[in-house]
DNA sequence: GATGAATGAGGATTCATTCAT
DNA sequence: CATGAATGAATCCTCATTCAT
């Protein structure tokens, strides 16, 4: 009787639920193997269903990947934005935002890998979506950066080379630190964020303020 | 007879030359398509030879990729090390090293992409080589960083979390800025380097010296 | 309550009605796509029901196709026979029969295509039914032809090569003209019939009477 | 030694030869099963090679089918045209042309089936090619018909409804008689042609001359 | 040294068909 | 009566890799 119940837990689920399960499985497999080495069969098996379901719900391997990207991307951007919104001044906002970011990655390692580390691997239609999502993340950071130092019109500054430069560097660094974090399990996301802030906060302010470093004669 | 000669311009080249031609072609294709979407046929055609030659010289697609990685990796590490070696103090060394790095990428975009952006894409044997090469680059930077601020034993500090953290962040930022540079063709590698130094030099020194940033109460 | 009623307009129809609706939809789809390219989903959707109903009523795709073939075949044979029966002499019978045929096709283009143009496409069980139906049509024509010129026993002549030859040629021509008619929407079925009769009536009589054409020496 | 030779007969053949062998096999299989039921594996096996060869040479199942259609279509149109060209007057030309046609079909049954009987079965790109080839055949007949009775400008008459009607009917009848011929192996192509000419020659002339049959009052 | 010919193996995708509700 | 959920079984196609010349 009880096990009839547990059977029911896995069988004949409504579409929406199954879709999430499939995405969960897909993220795992895409993350472990990379897009091309990931085999749809394995995803299906891991999700506890048969291949045709995947195609029924997502249309194609690309479609499935896109769905993964999208879900994780939105999750991240939201948690980033929510965190930043809780603070008023630029410094706090960046701190909160980065902290949320590292926290997210710490808990969604697979998702992050899928989301961010496979740009060159996919081609065609999906590449565009990947670009879009990556851009979203970058834009969130950029807007934080811009607003942080803008005494004047924020939106105008978004296009500034200075801003995009800083944002890009920041995102790149954060991404790379994702691996560092994985190799140093003892460090909490907040500690990592603190390290990063220590390293860039002063310079960032200066850079955005126009104070430039000049090469030594050595 | 005469046309036999002109044929010879392309045919029957010594092994070493052919190998380089093939690697050149391979880097182009791997870079444009990514490892899995790259098709050996296309590489062979681009190199102006037939597929079996590729296998004769490199054994397998993986072997060919490894060769690409290795050649570009060595090129980069050397140019980085050479540049750094010309300076004495830490600041200058980093400046010279990064400058060499951005210069290299500016001229070897394809090579850099192949070298650094495909970690998740390849599996098995090659993955190890990729890791090794990426590590090499990281180590070069790390050693620079470490030596830069070490008043004491350099090699000891290499294992320090501080050092690896800074190195990682730096490499990540530099990598990401590679794209920024591609989108801002007006900026010379030196200008990019200067921007980056402005952003991180102060903070980096402080961070490595143990001065930590602390979160505001906001 | 009221809307339960309006729902009932489409729902819970008696079996016989539903079957006809499904066959209608099936004929459309089979005709547009051909047997293999026709997808059961599309048929079900067009019929406004769900796939399982199709299987409940017809057992299989083949079964559904057979039902289509059968319905249209009977429709045609009957209308052909009825028309022919209204005339007494051979000439009139053929005229009436052909006229009925072209009239039928003009109004049931889809049905005719399904019925007659997919012999090679289906395999196995269905092929037999298709053959049977096509034979039925041929036989009706043949019997007309035979009776038309038979001074003696009609049924005996049915097996004659002359009769089957003429019947076959006639059916083939008529089938092909089906397309011609579709491309010349101005022509009424009766006009088409008249053209055809002009072309074959004299020769047919002669041929059946044993008068043969002989090749010129040119 | 000798059997090394016979091995060589089947192995490592030059592209052009293999292509023809594959087309031969494909025609057989397409003819027996129909386009959709035909499986590329079976074709490859029958041709004595592996599937990838088929794709290397023809690109896709559709491409292979197109190649079949094209080869057989050209064969037929040429043999038809050549035959017709040997005669001067319309009657002889038609006789020779039809005779060549039935001769062709008698010897290339499979080819004919592939060429002409699968219009509805294939979709997309190929459908166009099939249409083109079928049109070619029809055009050849139509041009014969037109020239045969045209006292004035031939090309003008090709568009005439009368001509296209007669040509269509003729092609349709001939196609259908293809089956009749297969069921009456005793009859030579020339005998079949004679039967057909007996049936249509007089009426055709009349029809094209404008003499129309009128329905009896019965 | 060089290549045209050939293939083993595997992956994405589709579809007729059936449960369980 | 009616259907959303689910799948077994093919089929097309591609690609790294290897002979035989």
UniProtKB/TrEMBL annotation, chains A, B, C, D:
Source taxon at top rank: Bacteria
Annotated Pfam families: TetR_C_46, TetR_N
HTH tetR-type domain boundaries: 16-76
SUPFAM superfamilies associated with the record: Homeodomain-like, Tetracyclin repressor-like, C-terminal domain
DNA-binding region(s) from the entry: 39-58
Annotated keywords: DNA-binding, Transcription, Transcription regulation
Identification of the protein by name: TetR/AcrR family transcriptional regulator
Species assigned in the record: Streptomyces polyrhachis
